[in-house]
């Protein structure tokens, strides 16, 4: 079964069940499926062939979900585009993917008009809620009344291509098959046991694999409902959690940090909330503890990456949790930790995390060299460093490429960042390695102060020396107004390295 068949079957079994709430409008599964079929038929009449890539350059809106399912129902491949990208970044992904269709929001018309069409494979550009012209079609007029049957789907057929954030270099197109998506949905639900009575609250960007898995796919997989927001507002989120009796909510660490900062008089009754989930970036322990204390709700952190469809580990709901852990491996996934020679390590030994399972990607689109680097004998080399304890709980220490080696000692940036984030004057922190003639690399901390006046560095130095070995303590410091981040709140260390390493040469 593929994703198109999944929606088709859901529409048959739960035709009248509400699938989507959005800005005062609601769609049941039956009506939504009919819209998807009509859009798929319209795309087919415009020339969409099996395997064609359909780029989706939209924010969080019903049209995104329609376009995603219509693309796969018609035998194509959904290609969600980072909504924050500008014309140059958009151009790179469209060129690499050889996309033939582009569905975009009217707010992005300026970026689309700046594309270099001469180097692209686009045959049709479709604007949502905007003015069509000689080059652009009106989205609302693409829908067809002609019958459209599901095109054949196979397990290994590509269903989506997800472009990575570029945190460690140029974005790469992660190819995910129907099996990859469905395997991960099954693995996640093996822990969460989502029911058709559950209601999801959607504030995640849908172009990110976390948003796709939790909001676009998981409700359909389980027959649940989705309350979708076009943008995040902490106050509106609390109101929606109460008014819609939300049972499943997912966010990135920044979301929970902002909710923590709301005044106490904004507290809502969260008694209906079964799961508050966090992913996309490391969750500071301080944020987790404050959220659970303030809202009396369990916050479950997991770990995953686009190359593994989404989630690989998750703290068990209602089960044992450990400070700093992202939980055990999900069902039907194998995770091991290896050293630089590829030898498997035992408990409490730090190494690179490798993953195996039906959720592991097919490879990077049009990039066999990079694919060969990360896929080996059915295992995905994640590039993430971590370890597991004797009970199988995993702990992430950071990216392998971010490892700092000072005088022969391995230093893990995340360990230092966690210490800095416990200081009341520090709002955000990022730690990187800077070339040094004596030590090879020196530790630099980039700090976002919590208050406008800033923070006294000598206080932070003393704070670190009381909690860390001397060789781990930052010797170089920088304060900034904000850190560069991806849409899920992941700090883009590559940009910091490029900026500050250059300054040290």
How would you explain this protein's 3D organization?
The termini are far apart. The longest helix has 17 residues. The protein folds into 3 domains: 127 residues, Rossmann fold (3-Layer(aba) Sandwich), CATH 3.40.50.980; 220 residues, ANL, N-terminal domain (Rossmann fold, 3-Layer(aba) Sandwich), CATH 3.40.50; 102 residues, ANL, C-terminal domain (GMP Synthetase, Chain A, domain 3, 2-Layer Sandwich). The mean pLDDT is 92. With 505 residues, it is of the alpha/beta class. Helix content is 30%, strand content 26%. It contains 14 helices and 26 strands. Strand 24 and strand 25 form a beta hairpin. An 8-stranded mixed sheet has the order 2-1-11-10-12-13-14-15, sandwiched between helices.
Q: Mean pLDDT, rounded to whole units? A: 92
Q: What's the total count of β strands?
A: 26
What is CATH's topology name of the largest domain? Rossmann fold
Question: What is the percent of helical residues?
Answer: 25-40%
CATH class of the largest domain: Alpha Beta
Number of domains: 3
Choose one word for the global shape: globular
Q: Biggest sheet, open or closed, and with what strands and sense?
A: 8 strands, mixed
Relative strand content: 25-35%
User: What distance lies between the first and last C-alpha atoms, to the nearest angstrom?
Assistant: 55 Å
Order of neighbouring strands in the sheet with most strands: 2-1-11-10-12-13-14-15
CA radius of gyration: 23 Å
Structural class: alpha/beta
The second-level CATH architecture of the largest domain is 3-Layer(aba) Sandwich
Number of helices: 14
The CATH superfamily of the largest domain bears the name ANL, N-terminal domain
């Amino acid at each position: 079964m593929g994703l198109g068949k999944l929606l088709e079957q859901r529409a048959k079994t739960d035709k009248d069940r509400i699938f989507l709430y959005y800005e005062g409008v609601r769609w049941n599964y039956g009506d939504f499926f009919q819209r998807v079929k009509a859009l798929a038929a319209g795309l087919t009449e415009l020339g969409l062939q099996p395997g064609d890539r359909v780029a989706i350059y939209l924010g969080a809106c019903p049209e995104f979900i329609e376009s995603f399912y219509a693309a796969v129902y018609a035998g194509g491949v959904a290609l969600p585009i980072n909504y924050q990208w500008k014309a140059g970044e958009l151009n790179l992904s469209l060129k690499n993917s050889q996309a033939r269709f582009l569905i975009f929001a009217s707010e992005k018309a300026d970026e689309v008009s700046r594309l270099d069409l001469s180097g692209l494979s686009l045959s049709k550009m479709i604007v949502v809620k905007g003015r069509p012209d000689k080059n652009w079609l009106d989205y609302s007029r693409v829908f067809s009344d002609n019958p459209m049957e599901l095109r054949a789907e196979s397990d290994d057929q590509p269903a989506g291509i997800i472009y990575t954030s570029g945190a460690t270099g140029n974005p790469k197109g992660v190819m995910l098959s129907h099996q990859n998506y469905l395997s991960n949905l099954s693995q996640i639900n093996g822990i969460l046991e989502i029911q058709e009575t559950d209601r999801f609250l959607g504030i995640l960007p849908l172009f990110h694999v976390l948003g796709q898995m939790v909001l676009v796919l998981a409700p359909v997989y389980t027959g649940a409902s989705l309350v979708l927001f076009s943008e995040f507002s902490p106050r509106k989120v609390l109101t929606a959690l109460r008014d819609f009796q939300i049972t499943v909510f997912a966010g990135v660490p920044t979301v929970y940090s902002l909710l923590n900062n709301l005044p106490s008089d904004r507290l809502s009754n969260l008694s209906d909330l079964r799961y508050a989930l966090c992913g996309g970036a490391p969750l500071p322990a301080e944020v987790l503890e404050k959220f659970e204390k303030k809202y009396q709700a369990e916050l479950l952190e997991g770990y995953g990456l686009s190359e593994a469809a989404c989630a690989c580990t998750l703290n068990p709901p209602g089960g044992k949790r450990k400070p700093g852990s992202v939980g055990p491996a999900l069902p039907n996934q194998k995770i091991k930790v290896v050293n630089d020679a590829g030898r498997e390590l035992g408990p409490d030994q730090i190494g690179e995390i490798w993953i195996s399972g039906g959720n592991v990607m097919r490879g990077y689109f049009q990039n066999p060299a990079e694919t060969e680097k990360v896929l080996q004998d059915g295992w995905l080399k994640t590039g993430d460093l971590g370890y597991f304890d004797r009970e199988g709980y995993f702990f992430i220490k950071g990216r392998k490429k971010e490892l700092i080696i000072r005088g022969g000692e391995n230093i893990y940036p995340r360990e230092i960042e966690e210490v800095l984030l416990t200081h009341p004057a520090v709002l955000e922190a990022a730690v990187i390695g800077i070339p040094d003639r004596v030590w090879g690399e020196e530790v630099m901390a980039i700090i976002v102060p919590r208050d406008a006046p800033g923070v006294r560095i000598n206080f932070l130095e003393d704070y670190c020396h009381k909690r860390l070995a001397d060789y781990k303590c930052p010797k170089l410091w920088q304060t900034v107004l904000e850190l560069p981040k991806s849409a899920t709140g992941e700090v883009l260390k590559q940009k910091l390295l490029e900026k500050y390493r250059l300054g040290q040469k």
